[in-house]
Amino acid sequence: MEIVDNTTKTTDSKTESKTDSKLIKKLETKFDKAQKAFGEQEYSVEVSKESLTFLNGSFSKNLKFKGYASYGIDEVFKAVETLKNGKGKWKREYVEAIFHFIKEYEGVGLSDARSHRTLSDEIAPTMETVQQNGQNLKDLATELEAATQGIPVEDFIKAMANSQQGPPGMPTGQR
To answer: Global pTM?
Structure first.
């Protein structure tokens, strides 16, 4: 793996920094604020009366899990209980958890299939917002790291992609 140090360059026996400390400080502040907001943000959740009935009925009775997933299920259903008329605000972790359990749910019959589809469609926009916010945070972290290394974001992304590929001929699982 090639390691590139682009923090300094030499010109006529003078060393000048390629990093912009003001930009780095600005990005660090922006990233810290965004990270805090991402951790604290609550997301609007809205499900129909039918979906609440499904969640508290067939879904909760037939939900399969392994090991410690029981803790997540218990917490998600505590959050479900906070919904007033199918509306409420949840932290990111609850949105991600219920989305996970919806994805893993194994229903039986057409009624379950339709109820599951409706619930999925109702939770999906909230999950999409969570994922977009996570991607925005990741993009900001990438921008900060590129600035710290004194290289354009595109070059940083290319370097990261190349470092994950490993030497030619190495099996993918060992990279």
So the answer is: 0.76
